[in-house]
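Progress report, Aim 2. The chain analyzed during this reporting quarter is listed below.
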Amino acid sequence: MEKMEQTKSTNTSQASQTQSGRWKLLLVIAVCAAPMLASYFTYFVIKPGAATNYGTLLDPRLYPMPSLNTQDLQGKPLGLDAYKGKWLMVQVDSLACDAQCQKKLLDMRQLRTAQGKEMDRIERVWLITDSADTQLIDQRLMAGIEGTRLLKVDAARLQTWLPVESDSAIRDHIYLIDPLGNLMMRYPKNADANKIKKDLSKLLKASAIG
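Predicted structure tokens for the chain:
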């Protein structure tokens, strides 16, 4: 009888430890998943701006980030994941950077500055799609967009990732990537910077990540 009671006590202890272990595992999973859940709740339930958000919300499940093999201007590998934890405003263009390209770059600088104390949560990225000599970049433009991250990328890799509006091209848009690395918003061709500013302000206010 005593042996049976000891066995029963041992089984009860093991069951208790197993149950405790399961709760700890669930707690760890919950803590790890919380930022992503909060992010999706913000985008798809709260929907910043509700029906009045200016940018087009994208379902990140449809646009997983591919391996872009991006490089810095010195040819060293540097991926977008280097800026995880920040909101990324991204534009795509060649080094020639015509007037439309320059306007987007300058708009992104002003949009970041306009966020005031929240501006450090945002990074600006210019994905460069050609291999032209970087010395050809207009130095006046470079001075005006100081702080923008310049990365070289294979244009073909972007075609399968970044969605476009009808009658437009990738270079026409500004894209927004969340701090978890999810592509989640696209702005239209010749976008109104003031309307983008309102979207960004609402996103930063509603989200605790980044």
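The mean pLDDT is 82. The CA atoms of residues 77 and 85 lie 19 Å apart. These observations will guide the mutagenesis work planned for the next reporting period.
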